[in-house]
Design a protein that fits this description.
Six copies of one chain form a homohexamer. Chain A has helices spanning 13-31, 35-45, 49-69. By secondary structure, chain A is an all-alpha fold. In chain A, helix 1 (13-31) crosses helix 3. The mean pLDDT of chain A is 97. Chains in contact: A-B, A-F, B-C, C-D, D-E, E-F.
C-alpha cells in the first residue's frame, strides 16, 4: 500500500472530518483491493439508507480519533 | 464541499447535540451527494424503528466528540 | 425545537442514566418529528428483542457521555 | 422507576462487569416495562448467536464506563 | 458465577487482547448460562462472516478498556 | 496462539492503522481457528458492501486504541 496517512493533524475541523471519511474508506480498500469490485458495490450501498447510516457511523468513530488527535482544534 | 464545520465549540449542550446531528448527516451527504436520492431515502428510514435507532446511535457517537470538545459545557 | 437540554450535569448516576435515555430518544424525535408516526413504531420495536438491544446500545453510548460529564459522580 | 443505581463504584472488576450487565438490561426495562413481554422475548434472543453478540456489545460499552469510573480498579 | 475477573492488568498486550476475548464471551455466558445451548450456537456463528465481524467488534471495544487499564503497556 | 502482539507502539500513523487491521482480524482467527474456513468466508464478505462497512467499523474502533497508545503520533 502506498503512503496515505502521514499524520492525523489537520488545519481545520472540516479537514479532520474529511480525513475521517478517508480512514473509513481505507479499511474497505485494504479488505477489498480491487477497484473494480468496489465500484460495483457503490451503486448498492449509496442508495440504501441503512448502508449510508452504517457508513456514517464508521466516519463518526474515526472522527473521534482525529478530533482527539487535534485536541478538538481548540 | 462548501465550508460547513468551522468549529466544534457550541454555546450550549443543545446546540452541541444539534451539531452532532449535522455531523451524522454530513457523512451521508459526502457518500451520496445527490439531494434527490437522499430525498427518496428519507421516507423509508424515517418510518423504520431500527433505522431510526441506528441514526440515533450515530448521533450519540458524534455527540461524544462534540461534548468532549466543549469540556461537557462545564 | 424547544429547549430540552440545559445541562449534562445530574444529581445522581440514575438521573444521568435517565438523561442518556432522553438523549437517545431525541435523535429519533429530530429525525421523525411526527409524534403520530413515532407512536406507530413503538409497538414494533418494543416487542423485538434485537430492537431493544439496539436501543440499549444507544443509551450505553450516551451514558458514557453523561457519566464523563459528571466525572462519574465521584 | 425505583432507585437502582446508587453509584458506579464497585469493589472489584467482576462486580463492575456485573453492574455493566445490569446497566445494559435497564435500558430494555425502561423501554419495555412489561416483565411479561420481556419474559416472552428471552427465549428468542438467548438462543440466537447474533443476538447474544449484540448483548455482549452493549455490556462492553457499559463496562467501559464502569471501568473508567473505578479508575480501572488500579 | 465463580470468580473470573480478578484484575484488568496483564503482563503483555497480547494477554490483554486475550482478556478482551474473555470479557466478550462472559456476557454471552451470563445471558445464556447453558453450556449445551452455547455449544449448539457455535457452529452457526463461526462459519458466518458477519457474525465473526460482530464478535471482533465486541473484542475491539473490550480491548479499548483493557488497553486503557494497562496504560497501553507503555 | 503464537506471539503476534509485542506492542501497540508503531513508528507512523499508517503502521498504526495497519496494526488496527491486524487486531480486527485476530479476533476472527481466535474465534475461527481454521484457515480453510476463513478462506471460504472471504469471497462472501469481500463482495458485500455492508460486510465491508462492518469490517471498517471494527478497524476504526481498534485504530482508536492504537492511536491513543501512540499519543496520536504527536
Amino acid at each position: 500500500m502506498e503512503a496515505w496517512l502521514p499524520s492525523l493533524i489537520t488545519a481545520t475541523p472540516q479537514e479532520g472530518y474529511e480525513l475521517a471519511i478517508k480512514l473509513s474508506r481505507m479499511a474497505v480498500k485494504y479488505t477489498q483491493p480491487s477497484a473494480e469490485v468496489r465500484a460495483q458495490l457503490r451503486p448498492v450501498y449509496e442508495k440504501d439508507a441503512d448502508s449510508l447510516t452504517a457508513v456514517s457511523q464508521v466516519v463518526a468513530i474515526n472522527f473521534q480519533t482525529v478530533a482527539a488527535a487535534n485536541n478538538y482544534w481548540k
